[in-house]
Amino acid sequence: MATSRSSDSCYVTARQVTFGVDGDDNLIAPPGTLVHIPGGSTHWFRFGPGGGEMISMTSRAGAAAFFADVDREISPTEPDFGVLLGVASSHGLTVPLPAS
Predict the structure, then answer these.
(1) Does pTM surpass 0.70?
(2) Same domain for 7 and 46?
């Protein structure tokens, strides 16, 4: 889950992706779906069973560098939330902490 200043759009190209935007969780997007995420909204996505594919478009310069850093720094099998917070912060993103 993250909040960014930029607007984002995601176009699902294969399988299924589930999105959450500003508390409207579990928006299931099959191939051919375009999801617009307004700037300032809190959002997340999760690939469905067997994975998923999408094209992510953002209005903010540097978004590709954020995803490259996540790919390089975060283990897909043993993710470290603290490392994710650091990567997000270094790119000007806010990650809300889970409720205790």
Answers:
(1) no
(2) yes
**Which residue range forms the structural domain that includes residue 36?**
2-58
How many Å apart are CA 51 and CA 5, to the nearest integer?
28
Quote the strand ranges of the chain, DSSP E: 2-3, 8-21, 24-29, 34-37, 42-58
Whether residues 83 and 39 share a domain: the answer is no
Q: Helix 63-73 crosses helix 81-90 at what angle (to 10 degrees)?
A: 160
In contact, 12 and 29? CB cutoff 8 Å = yes
69 and 21 in one domain?
A: no
How far is CA 63 from its chain centroid? 11
Q: Is residue 98 part of a domain?
A: no
Query: Residue 24 domain-assigned?
Result: yes
Backbone angles phi, psi at 16, to 5 degrees: -145, 140
Residue 60 has pLDDT above 90, yes or no: no
User: Residues 24-54: pLDDT tens digits?
Assistant: 888 899 999 999 888 888 888 999 888 899 9
φ, ψ (nearest 5 deg) of residue 46: -145, 130
